[in-house]
């Protein structure tokens, strides 16, 4: 008897849903072998990003254009994909000082911590929530779905694109409705999971990495960093206040006492403090220079230096 899956019946199944028979006895394996297989899956998740670099670049360029003009970064997803979107959006204010984010999570905010699996099929809710968020031409919109076919996410991306937003689709398949719906598709074909269908594993890792790459690359270019120092950071606790002093000292080539004084004068805005300490100007002039140059420290300093000539 031949127990192999019939390719005619599996061809239409997304790679994330297929069963890899090499892991058929996973529950009998010793811990070391199971962990090795899981590590291999995580490695594969990162490797697919290299093949997607041209797609990631196109998506980042489109996102940058909308955000540079004052637009928002809007995400849509269900289940694990939606929770990864919530995580990415939550990290942008403390890391870059960027707060213009919206997350449309299937099932609402409560689905961020409690699974609501049925919500992913609600296309009407997706369209309604895109309209309620007033998504439009100023915005960049990222839809994430491992299978590439989650009805909620596909409907949200279609509605956002129809409203004029720049749309990105991230899926863990080579092709599918989400990738077809988005202006900038990103295919991260991670294949079957070690634990069949558990897309929080390789698929989730690839999605998280892609979101990291997109938001970091874009916001660094939009003034979130000076060199590789995250000057958009908000020093909201003792550890971050110490980090802020060290960053200003390094960026401006001054001692920590001078850096701390610049931060105090700048109301603890790291960008302003760097321009104060390095540019030799007061906080008001530093803020004006930054405002005139899109919050980019390097450009503000160059303009001040030019003005001194």
Question: Which architecture of the largest domain would the CATH scheme give at its second level?
Answer: 3-Layer(aba) Sandwich
Name of the top-level CATH class of the largest domain? Alpha Beta
Could you name the ranges where pLDDT drops below 50 across 5 or more consecutive residues? 1-11
Helix content, binned percent: 40-55%
Describe this structure in words.
The protein has 309 residues and is an alpha/beta fold. It has 2 domains: 197 residues, Glucose-6-phosphate isomerase like protein, domain 1 (Rossmann fold, 3-Layer(aba) Sandwich), CATH 3.40.50; 71 residues, Helicase, Ruva Protein, domain 3. 54% of the residues lie in helices and 8% in strands. The chain contains 13 helices and 5 strands. Strands 2-1-3-4-5 form a 5-stranded parallel sheet, sandwiched between helices. The radius of gyration is 23 Å and the shape is globular. The N terminus is likely disordered.
